[in-house]
Write a structure and sequence with these properties.
5-stranded antiparallel sheet, Spore Coat Polysaccharide Biosynthesis Protein SpsA, Chain A, 577 residues, Phosphorylase Kinase, domain 1, Aminoglycoside 3'-phosphotransferase, Chain: A, domain 2, alpha+beta
Length: 577
């Protein structure tokens, strides 16, 4: 058996994701579709394979050049797309006298290619098309004998008595007389005579010519098989989930068989990611869908996976990642339940217990910074590798002005009016910085509580930076809104506990904290403004007063001389909120 894999298409329905990655190189569980199909063909006894190419053909050539398959796998480039029939004719020199298989490169299936090929060898008709019941694509009509009648007639119901025979097995049509062409076909070499050379030609035109000559096209009808066409982002995501979820449960719960897998969407966060709880019986995982990769640069999924695996390996309390695919953006991980620190503290009535919990978290921050910073590769980060002056100026100070003051509050102000103060703030926030790993969004909704243990989540924005920034994120968190006496008590504990860990003078440690508390506060308000106004996530608006009050308090420790313009504008918005 020889085979042609059709991989020349533009992937139009998959744009913008297919603009930089050809559809055959989209991955499922870290394996490109093309590799999955080639491996299945080889396992089915295929002796040689050609892949036709056009769109981003260099990437497919480069990928195949890196692979070492046990049979010849070559490409045939089409400067102009020739269509299915034209592609078959274009490699006429490749075929021999035996029937050959042609397969679309954008399908995922467990249909046995060897069984299909043997089915074709056991009848005398020139073509076998593999059909499957998928109501979204059921356009191929069959007659009562199980042969293909036409390809585009309107949908119609089948009689209850209609059956088609595949070997000794019968397939009850049930509701449909029309079925879906799976993109898997076996052809006799005589079909080449119906295809013109060097022009675009649809193989369907050739099949219709066969039918007009009263020749028969046989249907191999699958039942109880998995098949999905990945022509759209939605269908691609579904196929990724269908294939990855069982493997994730196998990794998380080895040796334990379960029932069908069900997923339920969870309440989201400030990002565009989607979160799901995935259940199999009484077992559960959490899946994050970060979105499909659009280019070759390091993306959020890359950072989430690399940093998450690193932190877990360093013994830091984060969810264990069981399975991931960084192209599709799917990550399956340990389910830490539904209770975050915000809810946990809200239900803790004893103030002494609140302080005890936070002291434990402060110790965890020390481990996160020091142990997380060991062997940390800055290449894992997808925003910036370090907490830098440029980041402070753009992602915190300008963010505050543009997204909150101008965007949300509609104030007529200019960034240059504050620029000198912001530059001074950035310099001083970094002056006594001793870098370890920082989470950079370490607030209560990113800390889960399970079995009275704390776990850090949403670490994909992590990088190298001052431990004081994470401490400030925890203490000035507007979701919990710790009282000022409690904040000051915990800050004193933090200075005493963490400054020896990072070998910092306590006064310098405190100085760095005070400036980081302001930069973090600016980032919080910028985010609340952006999420409320642009993303229409108005849930965040109720926390804006807490964040403004916190910023007023943190600025007050410097009087009115160090940041006069910033202090003035914050007093103004604080008085009018």
């Amino acid at each position: 058996m020889k085979a042609l894999i059709l991989a020349a298409g533009l992937g139009t329905r998959l744009r913008p994701y297919s603009e930089n990655t050809p559809k055959p190189l989209f991955t499922i569980a870290k394996r490109p579709l093309l590799d999955i199909i080639i491996s299945n063909l080889i396992n089915s006894g295929c002796k040689a394979i050609v892949v036709n190419t056009h769109h981003l053909h260099q990437q497919i050539d480069a990928y195949l050049a890196r692979k070492k398959y046990p049979v010849p796998v070559t490409t045939r480039h089409e400067p102009d797309i020739l269509g299915t029939g034209g592609a078959i004719k274009n490699i006429a020199d490749f075929w021999d006298n035996a029937p050959f298989m042609v397969i679309n490169s954008d399908i995922v299936t467990d249909i046995d290619f060897k069984v299909v090929y043997e089915f074709h060898l056991n009848h005398c008709h020139p073509v076998t098309l593999v059909l499957h019941n998928d109501p979204e694509f059921n356009t191929v009509a069959l007659n009562n004998d199980g042969f293909i009648q036409d390809f585009d007639e309107p949908f119609c119901k089948a009689d209850a008595s209609d059956t088609a025979i595949n070997g000794s097995k019968s397939f009850e049509f049930e509701d449909y007389k029309r079925l879906t062409f799976t993109g898997i076909q076996v052809l006799n070499p005589e079909l080449l005579e119906l295809i013109p050379e060097n022009v675009f030609f649809s193989i369907i035109d050739g099949y219709e010519k066969l039918l007009s000559q009263n020749k028969k096209i046989s249907a191999y009808i699958t039942k109880d098989h998995y098949w999905k066409d990945l022509g759209t982002p939605e269908r691609y995501r579904l196929a990724v989930f269908d294939k990855m979820a069982p493997e994730a449960f196998k990794q998380a719960f080895p040796g334990i068989m379960g029932n069908s897998i069900v997923r339920t969407e969870l309440y989201g966060d400030g990002s565009d990611r989607k979160w799901y709880r995935v259940n199999r019986g009484n077992q559960s995982l959490v899946m994050a869908d970060h979105g499909i990769r659009q280019d070759d640069s390091t993306c959020e999924t890359d950072a989430f996976v690399a940093i998450g695996l690193h932190l877990h390996n360093r013994g830091i309390p984060v969810p264990k990642i069981y399975s991931y695919d960084t192209f599709s953006g799917h990550v399956f991980m340990e389910d830490l339940g539904d209770i975050n620190l915000q809810a946990f503290i809200k239900n803790t009535e004893n103030q002494d217990n609140v302080v005890s919990h936070y002291k434990l978290l402060i110790r965890h921050i020390g481990k996160l910074s020091m142990d997380g910073g060991k062997d940390f590769d800055p290449a894992w980060t997808y925003q910036t590798a370090h907490y830098t002056k440029d980041l402070i100026m753009e992602k915190e100070c300008r963010y505050f002005v543009d997204a909150f003051l101008k965007g949300y509050l509609k104030m007529d102000i200019r960034f240059p009016d504050f620029e000198n103060e912001f530059r001074s703030l950035a310099d001083k926030a970094l002056k006594f910085s001793i870098n370890g790993f920082i989470h950079r969004d370490l607030q209560s909704t990113n800390i889960m509580v399970k079995n009275n243990r704390f776990y850090f989540i949403d670490f994909q924005g992590g990088r190298l930076g001052p431990i004081q920034y994470d401490l400030a994120s925890l203490l000035i968190d507007p979701y919990v809104n710790l009282s000022l006496p409690v904040q000051n008590n915990l800050l004193k504990f933090g200075v005493e506990t963490l400054s020896p860990v990072i070998r910092s003078d306590p006064d310098k440690f405190l100085s760095c904290y005070q400036y980081c508390a302001i930069t973090r506060n600016l980032q919080i308000l910028g985010a609340f403004g952006f999420l409320s106004r642009i993303k229409k996530k108005t849930y965040f608006e109720k926390y804006i007063p807490n964040a403004i009050h916190s910023l007023q308090y943190n600025l007050s420790s410097f009087g009115n001389t160090e940041f006069p313009n910033l202090t003035s504008i914050v007093k103004k918005i604080g008085g009018t909120r």
